[in-house]
Amino acid sequence: MIISFNGDEGAGKTTIGKKVAQKIGFNYHYTGQIFRDMAEKRGLTTVEYLKLGETDPSIDKEVDDYVVKLAKEEDDFLIDSRMAWHFIPHSLKIYLQVDELVGVKRIYEQLKEKNTRNEVRSVRSLETVLAKIRERKETDNKRYLQYYGVNIHDKKNYDFVLDTTALSREEVFEKVMEFINSKMNADKSD
Questions:
Q1: pTM, whole model, 2 decimals?
Q2: Most buried residue, 31, 66, 75, 101, by CB count within 10 Å?
Q3: Would you kindly state where each structural domain of the chain is located, as residue ranges?
């Protein structure tokens, strides 16, 4: 079984994705880190790098090819990726959503502790983080619509959508695991 995770910024997809993969014994893959690493090599923030992708399809193609190759080579894994649901249509597709301001506050707190996102070079304020998150979302939406004709935030693309706004990490984890377990059990009985 392949599980693809997507969601709003700050919804908890990376945190929950890692925890789920560990719980069920799946490998965890994260395409966001590939983008961040490629941006860093060029001395750019992730947002700056992804903006290049608006005119240079090779920016996305490298990661897209990685996702397709992974699906051919591995059977059981979880992938945290904006487009895995599209490139691995047979995956179990999960989307975590969150109120924009709640998501931004979560990211802001995380960045104050440790800035691993390479999206905001300095964390001055919630407003700075909000502006960068909106810029990132805009460039993502533009690229995916332009190159693939898809809206990554359209809930119809997913098998399970969960609003994490008012939920604790543990509650999100439990609800996601309930859904995954129901699908794994259904697969076993087929």
A1: 0.87
A2: 31
A3: 2-189
Report the sign of the C-alpha dihedral through residues 186, 166, 84, 157, in that order. Answer: positive
Amino acid symbol at 115 = N
Select 2-189's CATH number: 3.40.50.1370, 3.40.50.300, 3.40.50.20, 3.40.50.150.
3.40.50.300
Q: Which residues of 138-170 are buried (b: 16+ CB within 10 A; e: fewer)?
A: ebbeebbeebeeeebbeeebbebebebeebeee
CA 19, CA 3: separation in Å to the nearest integer? 13
Helices (H), the chain: 13-24, 31-41, 46-52, 58-73, 84-87, 100-113, 126-148, 169-189
